[in-house]
Amino acid sequence: MVRRNRVRLVVWFASLVGLFAYVADYFGSVFTTQAALDDFAAISDNPGIKALTGLAAAPDTLGGAVWTKIWMTLAVSLALGIVFLVTRNGRADEELGRTELLRSRMLGSHAQAVATWIVLAVLAVAIGLAVALVSMVAGLDPDDAGTTGSWVVGASLAGVGLVAIGVGALVGQFTATSRGANGLGSIVILGFYMLRMIGDLGDGALTWASPFGWGEEMAPWGANRWWPFGLMLALTAVLLAAAWLIEERRDHGAGLLPDRAGSSGAPARYASPLGLALRLQRGPIVGWTIAVVLSALMFGSVANQMSDLLDSAGGNVAAMLQGAGVDALVALLCSMIALLVTVFAVQSATQLRADEASDILEPQLAGAVSRTRWVLMRLLIPAVGALALLAIGGGLLGVSYGSTIGDPSQALRLAGATLAYWPAVMVIVGLAVALFGYLPRIAIALSWAVIGALWMIMILGDALNLPGWALNLMPFSATPTLPAEGMDWTPLVVMTAVALALVGAGLERFARRDIQPA
Amino acid sequence: MAIEIQGLHKSFGRVHALRGLDLEAPVGQVTGFLGPNGSGKTTTIRVLLGLLRSDAGTVRLLGGDPWADAVRLHRDIAYVPGDVTLWPNLTGGETIDILCRLSVPLEPERKRTMLDRFDLDPTKKARTYSKGNRQKVALVAALASRAPLLLLDEPTSGLDPIMEAAFQESIREVKAEGRSVLLSSHIFTEVESLADRVVIIRDGETVESGTLAELRHLTRTQVTAVLDAGADTLASLPGVHDLATGDGRTSFAVDDDALATVLAEVARLRPRSLVANPPSLEDLFLRHYGDELAALEGGGRG
Ligand SMILES: Nc1ncnc2c1ncn2[C@@H]1O[C@H](COP(=O)(O)OP(=O)(O)O)[C@@H](O)[C@H]1O
Ligand SMILES: [Mg+2]
C-alpha cells in the first residue's frame, strides 16, 4: 500500500504542508505590525470571505490571518485527496480484480482495507504535525500564548483528514465503480463545505453539522477548543465501523445495492459516440445537476439573509461592505456556481483520456467513427452541459434571491451573470482537450491541477505575488463579475476564440498520434 | 488479399517492436498469426486498425490504407482485442449490441445463436464477468455480424475447452461464408486446426510463413518414455529427431506424419510410461531458430 502510493502520499503531504508554510512565511513578512493585522481582520470580516474560507476565531493575530487565508483550502483539499486515495486502494483495485489475489491469500477480508486506513491515518496525522511545527517555526503563536494555537490548528487538519478516510471507506461500499465512489465522495465533501458555509453566514447552527465546521470551531489562537477534535474522531470511528460491517455483508466486487439483471440489448442510439457517452455519463450528469440545483438554492437563501441584514442595519453595514453590498456577494456566489460547473465539465472532458487509458477507446475507434468525430461528439456533453447547468444554477439563484426581495427579474439577471462564465469554462475544457492531445499520460492529473490552481488563485490572489495582468489572464478573473460589475463582451469573445483554438489543437494532435493505453 | 503487409516497422521510444514484418492474409481463408508473447502480434493488429501509425513499410487492408481510410475500412471489420475491457455498468447484451453496431449492422438472429453457443448470460453487468466471459462478449459481438474480415487477437486465451470448441465451430462457419480471418495466437496447436495459412513471427520479424502443409516440419510431437531396453533402435526410425536418453528416460521428437508408426514401435518395446506432448511455440523456436538467433545476437554484439 505504501509502495504503490508513495509518490502520491509524498505529493499530497508536500503540497499541503508547503502551501501552509508559504502563506505563513509570506504573511509573516507582510504583517509586521498589529495595525496591519487589524486592517486585514477588518477587510476579511465580510460575507464573501466568510462564505468562501470562513473567518478565523482570532482574525487579528498572525495565526488567525494565515488561518483565514488558507485553512479551508487545505482542509477541503486534504479531504478530497484522502477520499480519492481510499478509493484508489479499495474500490478501484476491486474493480480491476487486484484485491482478489490478496484476499485469496488468506489475508482476511478486511486486511487490505485496514492497511489503507492506517496508512492514510498516518498521512493525516503527519500533515497535522507538520503544520503544527511549521506554525511554531513561523512564529504564528502570539508571544505570550505558548504553542497551543499551533497544536490546535494542526489537529484540526488531521481531524478533517481522518473523517475523510471514513467518508471514503463508506462511499466505496455504496458504489460498485471507482468513478462512482469518487463522485459520491466529492459530493459528500462538497456538501460538508456548503453546510458550514451557510452556517458561517447565518446563525452558525449549520456549521456544527459539518466536520469542516468542527475544525473551524476548534478556534486556534481563539478559544483553542480540543473537544470538537473528539467529535471528528468519533465520526471517523462510526464511519469506519459502518464500512467494516457493510464490507462483511456484501459480495466481493459488488456494491451494497445488489446488481439486478439488466437489459439483454441496447437501443441503436448507443452506437453513436454521443448516445453512448450520454448513457455512460448519466450518473455524473444527474449528480452534478442535483449538486448545482441544491447549491443555487442554498446560495439564494444566503443572499436573502444578507439582504435582510442590510435592510435592518441600514447604511452603516453597506458601507462596511465597501459599498458593493449584496451585489458583490451575489457575484461571488455566481462565480462559485461557475466553478462547480467547471468541475463537471472537466470531469466530462477528462473521460476522453480515461477511455484511452482503460483501453475502452480501442473498440470504439475500431468502429466506423473518425477520431475527430468521436472527440467532438463527446465534447458536446461538457459544452452543452455547462451551458445548461450555468443557466439553471444562475436562474435558480436568481429565483430564490428575487423571491424575497420581490424582484422576479433577478432570475434572468443572474442566469446571465453565470452564463458569462461559459467561455471561461470552455477555455478550461479546451485546455483539457489540448492536454489530451499532446500529453495524454498526464492529461487527467494536469487538468485537475488547473482546477486546483484556479481555486488557489481565487483564494490566495494577492499573496501569490502574481502581477495584475497575469491574474487578469486567468479565465475566471477575466470574466466580468456580474452583477457587481458591468458587462464587457471583449474578454468573452476572446476566451471563446481561445477555447476553440485549444480544442482545435488538441484534436489535430489526437488525430495524428498513436493510441496510448495506460 | 485481405491483408498485405511488407516491411512493417514500429517503435515505441527505444523499443523496436516491429522490425520489417511481412504478412499476407488471403480473402476467404483463416490465417494463423503466431508468435511468442511480446513478439508484436498485438502491435501489428493495432496498426491494421489504424490505432497506431506505422514508421515504415506498406500496409494494405481490404484494398485500403488502414490509417487514412480507417472509417471506411472499419465498416467491414470485426475486432476482438487481446485484453477485453468493457464498460462496467453496462450488461453483456448491451455491450454486444454497441460493440457490433459501432462498425457493422447487428444481426439479431446470429447474436442469439452465439449467445446460446457460448453459454453467455447477456443480462449480467459487465463488471461481474470473469476474463473468459469478457472475452466471450467480444467474440459474440464480432460473430453477430457479417463483417467480411475478422481480426482476432488471442481470442481464446481465457476460454475453457468446451468454449474453445464453440469458437472453432464458429470460425469454420465464417470461413464457409467466404469471409476472412486473421487469428493471432501463441499456441501452435490452436491455430493448427483452423488455419489455412500460418505466419510465424518472432521479435517483430516474420520467420516463417506458408500453408500448414508447408509448415508440417514444424509440428513435431515431443515424446518421453521410460523403456527397459531398445531405445537405440528408435533413433534410426524415419521421422524421429533429437533422441536423448538419461535417467532411464528416452525422449525424442517425432514428425506428425510418422507419429503412428513410431508410437507403434514404442508400444512394442513395452514402455512403463509414455508421455506425448504437442510442441509449444517456444519449443519450436528454440529448436528451429535457436542457432540462427545465437548467431545473430553474437554477430550483433561482435
Ligand atoms: N504502447 C507501447 N509502449 C511501449 N512498448 C510497447 C507498447 N506496446 C507494445 N510494446 C512492446 O512491443 C513489443 C510487442 O508487443 P505486443 O505487440 O503486445 O506483442 P504480442 O501481442 O505478440 O504479445 C513488446 O516488447 C512490448 O513490450
Ligand atoms: Mg498481444
Write a structural description.
The complex is a heterodimer of chains A (518) and B (302). With 518 residues, chain A is an all-alpha fold. Chain A folds into 2 domains: 1-30 and 72-257, no CATH class; 270-518, no CATH class. In chain A, 76% of the residues lie in helices and 0% in strands. Chain A is built from 24 helices and no strands. In chain A, helix 15 (325-349) packs across helix 19. The longest helix of chain B is centred in the C-terminal third of the chain and has 21 residues, at 281-301. In chain B, 34% of the residues lie in helices and 28% in strands. In chain B, helix 3 crosses helix 5. The chains are: A mainly alpha (518), B alpha/beta (302). Chains A and B meet through helix 12 and helix 17 of A and helix 2 and helix 3 of B. Magnesium ion (MG) binds next to helix 1 of chain B. Magnesium ion binds next to helix 1 of chain B.
Helix-strand topology string of chain A = HHHHHHHHHHHHHHHHHHHHHHHH
Structural class of chain B: alpha/beta
Show the largest interface.
A-B, 35 and 39 residues
**Strand percentage of chain B:** 25-35%
Strand content of chain A: under 5%
Biggest sheet overview of chain B: 6 strands, mixed
Distance between the termini of chain A: 20 Å
How many helices of chain A?
A: 24
Approximate shape of chain B: globular
Gyration radius of chain B, to the nearest Å? Answer: 22 Å
Enumerate the distinct ligands: adenosine-5'-diphosphate, magnesium ion
Shape label of chain A? globular
Distance between the termini of chain B: 41 Å
The main sheet of chain B orders its strands as 5-6-7-3-8-9
Residue runs with pLDDT of under 50 for 5 or more positions of chain B: none
Give the rounded overall mean pLDDT of chain B.
88
Per DSSP, the total helix count of chain B is: 10
Helix content of chain A: over 70%
Percent helix among the residues of chain B? 25-40%
Instruction: Say how many strands of chain B there are.
Output: 13
Number-wise, the strands of chain A total 0
